[in-house]
Design brief:
Elements lengths: L4 E4 L15 E11 L5 E11 L2 E7 L12 E3 L4 E9 L5 H7 L4 E6 L7 E11 L2 E7 L4 E3 L4 E5 L10 E8 L3 E11 L2 E11 L4 E12 L5 E10 L18 E2 L14 E3 L2 E5 L4 E3 L3 E23 L10 E10 L7 E7 L2 E8 L7 E25 L2 E12 L5 E8 L4 E7 L5 E4 L2 E8 L4 E12 L2
Parallel strand pairs: 2-16, 14-23, 17-21, 21-27
Antiparallel strand pairs: 1-11, 2-3, 3-13, 4-12, 5-13, 6-12, 7-8, 7-11, 8-9, 9-10, 14-15, 15-21, 16-19, 16-20, 18-19, 21-22, 22-25, 23-24, 25-26, 26-31, 27-30, 28-31, 29-30
Length: 456
């Protein structure tokens, strides 16, 4: 009599027994609320036909990274939820072979030009899809036999995807609405911005929401919203890396986008994406959510350290910074700037409220350089030193420019006294800023004396 069962080889074929929940109706709605770091709140609503009395209902609308403790089930008053179980041991070669440890399997060994040798024995050990130890009916043990494996007589159901199994008791038979709400890992979102700068420094900002799904589940026609803010999640021991092998759907850049106005909820801003979205597993989805205009200004800044070195330095270029006020609330993300078809650089943006001053460092100014020299360093006493500093700034542009020179001092100094005829501003106890205007194709020298008091 011919035996039937499961066969595993380099080409694997299974006959799966998977009982789909046939008493679920077709009406279906999903919503996703995605947080910045490896978390989403998922809500599923569906109707189901149930019988009177106690019964089991399988709910397959869950991810592979569901947090079981977070599941909330909403049922009519006529139905009582006795227990729920999250099943996630998905069908695979390792799972199947593990079920047959200590049980009888059949091994088909093929020899070229000869008949196939069939061996029946007890599976003692395996690694991956390879049998390591097989005890035959004669009592001998085969070590690392190579062949096609047949698994006879498996009758239990195999899971193709995770499922929640509900133990319910109903007062009468009816079609009932069921809603599940749960948290899941495997999601993140970020904001990406494109800033287009005009000749007169008008800045057009276009924003995109980039959503990553690595949850093990596809979502079709789902209502999606994203939450901006820093969430304290006591359960999260890690964050999902952003660099993954995803199918990336890159949108075409457009000039005029319709804004999605954020709603304040507790300490967060919530963006309801307007269209129903399909977000496949192992994919990026990018959705336009912002289009704003603001005025920008280019700022040049040089930052030096008082005790950096006491010898003349090579010419240093000023940082080129774009400064602007946020036209609206901007979630954390990266801004890429362009001007007249040239990529200027990019900068990271933190969660920023409306009307906040933002500075984006884009690179170094080619035609603005400075040489900083400590002209004299004299020890006044064991704990006091006086330094005379010269900063010569050269402007090779055909226009005058305004710049900032920031000097930083050791934070462990007891006190600092500054003497300069050049106007300056104290930023804090350990730094000062010189605003300076440099004429076209000209130069300016800043000189000052710093008396440094060291801790005794």
């Amino acid at each position: 009599m011919q035996k039937t069962g499961f066969k595993i080889s380099l080409i694997v074929s299974f006959f799966f027994i998977f009982c789909l929940t046939l008493n679920l109706t077709d009406s279906f709605a999903e919503s996703l609320t995605i947080y910045n770091d490896n978390l989403a709140l998922i809500e599923v609503q569906k109707k189901a036909q149930i019988a009177k009395g106690r019964q089991f209902l399988e709910w397959p609308y869950v991810t592979e990274k569901l947090i079981p403790e977070s599941v909330l089930v909403t049922l009519p008053n006529s139905v009582r939820l006795i227990s729920q179980e999250y099943l996630f041991d998905l069908a695979g070669i390792n799972m199947l072979l593990n079920k047959y440890l200590g049980k009888e399997i059949i091994l088909h060994i093929y020899h070229e030009g000869q008949e196939t040798q069939t061996i029946t024995g007890t599976l003692l050990s395996f690694a991956g899809s390879q049998v390591q130890l097989l005890k035959t009916s004669s009592g001998s043990i085969l070590v690392n036999p190579i062949g096609q494996i047949e698994l006879p007589g498996l009758t239990e159901s195999l899971l193709l995807r995770p499922v929640l199994k509900f133990d319910l008791e109903s007062s009468f038979a009816s079609v009932i609405p069921i809603k599940t709400t749960y948290l899941s890992r495997g999601f993140y979102w970020k904001a990406d911005y494109v800033g287009n700068l005009s000749e007169n420094f008008d800045l057009s900002l276009a924003g995109w929401v980039t959503i990553g799904n690595q949850s093990g589940k596809d979502f079709h026609d789902a209502q999606v919203r994203v939450v901006a803010g820093t969430l304290h999640d006591a359960d999260n021991k890690f964050t999902m890396p952003e660099r993954r092998v995803y199918k990336q759907e890159t949108p075409a850049m457009v000039e005029d986008l319709q804004n999605i106005e954020p709603k304040k909820n507790f300490s967060y801003y919530v963006y309801d994406l307007k269209d129903l979205l399909t977000i496949r597993n192992k994919s990026y989805k990018q959705v336009a959510f912002l289009s704003e205009k603001t005025k920008a200004k280019q700022v040049f800044r040089l930052i030096s350290y008082m005790e950096q070195e006491d010898r003349p330095q090579r010419p240093r270029h000023f940082q080129s910074i774009l400064r602007f006020k946020t036209p609206t609330t901007l979630p954390k993300g990266k801004i890429r700037f362009y001007k007249e078809g040239i990529f200027l650089g990019s900068s990271e943006l933190q969660h920023t409220p409306k009307n906040e001053l933002v500075e984006a460092q884009l690179g170094e100014e080619f035609d603005l350089v400075a040489v900083r020299t400590i002209k004299e360093s004299r020890k006044i006493s064991q704990y006091i030193r006086k330094n005379k500093v010269s900063i010569v700034i050269r402007n090779r542009m055909d226009k005058s420019v305004e710049a900032e020179v920031t000097e930083l001092f050791n934070k462990y100094l007891a006190n600092i006294e500054i003497f300069s005829s050049f106007p300056y501003e104290s930023l804090n106890a350990w730094s000062i800023k010189f605003p300076v205007k440099i004429p076209a194709n000209g130069k300016v020298e800043i000189t000052y004396t710093a008396q440094l008091f060291y801790n005794i």
